[in-house]
Amino acid sequence: MEKAAARQLLIKRLTNLAQQADKQQEQQQLYQQLFALPQWQQAKRIGLTISQALEVATQPIIEAAWAAGKTVYVPKVMPQRQLAFLPYTATTVLVQSKFGLHEPAYQAELVATDFDLLLVPGLAFTAAGKRLGFGGGYYDRFLAQHPQKTVSLALSPQFYTTADWPVERFDMTIDHVITVKQVK
Ligand SMILES: Nc1nc2c(c(=O)[nH]1)N(C=O)[C@@H](CNc1ccc(C(=O)N[C@@H](CCC(=O)O)C(=O)O)cc1)CN2
Ligand SMILES: Nc1ncnc2c1ncn2[C@@H]1O[C@H](COP(=O)(O)OP(=O)(O)OP(=O)(O)O)[C@@H](O)[C@H]1O
């Protein structure tokens, strides 16, 4: 399947899941697995996104990070398809971008490029860390410039044994993909 068709299929499946109570249960499982990882426990600086409705909700992760005294950074989309990660605290004012994403204001002196752990969003992932994103190439570009320890959280419709979309030369591999244990 082409990437564009695979994205449409994943968006459809995630729309369905978002309407089911299963999504909450799956998310709880993903959070517990994340919080159990030494990479999470040891991380002082965490990069992650402010989630959109179809994605794994990141607010509980952000709150857990704050509660554990970690510093949280979230991305802002910049020209030339770059990402700028800026600190996110309880008092940060977020602005909705033209893509509908909630982002902090750009402040050059606050931009961070190195984290102890970067949570990478996406539409689909394989066990070996292959990733299909929303199509901007933002994370592939960022990770090519700034290699990091990476983790992604995959809801059941997002997890694949092998990629059934084309994996290209520039696609960066995620170190660790967490997924749900099948309960059905
Ligand atoms: N919650 C969340 N935030 C995130 C990401 C994400 O996946 N999830 N990103 C993950 O990368 C980055 C933003 N990713 C984007 C990916 C694609 C397009 C995009 O398709 N832009 C089109 C126009 C789309 C439209 O017509 O509205 C374009 O630039 O032409 C925009 C942002 C950073 N923030
Ligand atoms: N390191 C890079 N340098 C320049 N261009 C890149 C790089 N990585 C990816 N791209 C470009 O970005 C475009 C989108 O890539 P792709 O479809 O893999 O995005 P994605 O990983 O799904 O999106 P995202 O990372 O934003 O969630 C491609 O056209 C590709 O050529």
TrEMBL record:
Signal peptide as annotated in the record: none
Catalyzed reactions: (6S)-5-formyl-5,6,7,8-tetrahydrofolate + ATP = (6R)-5,10-methenyltetrahydrofolate + ADP + phosphate
Residue ranges that the Swiss-Prot or TrEMBL entry lists as coiled coil: 7-34
KW Acyltransferase (keyword) present: no
Gene3D superfamilies recorded: NagB/RpiA/CoA transferase-like
Record flagged with keyword Transmembrane helix: no
Any Pfam family: 5-FTHF_cyc-lig
EC number(s) reported in the record: 6.3.3.2
Protein name: 5-formyltetrahydrofolate cyclo-ligase
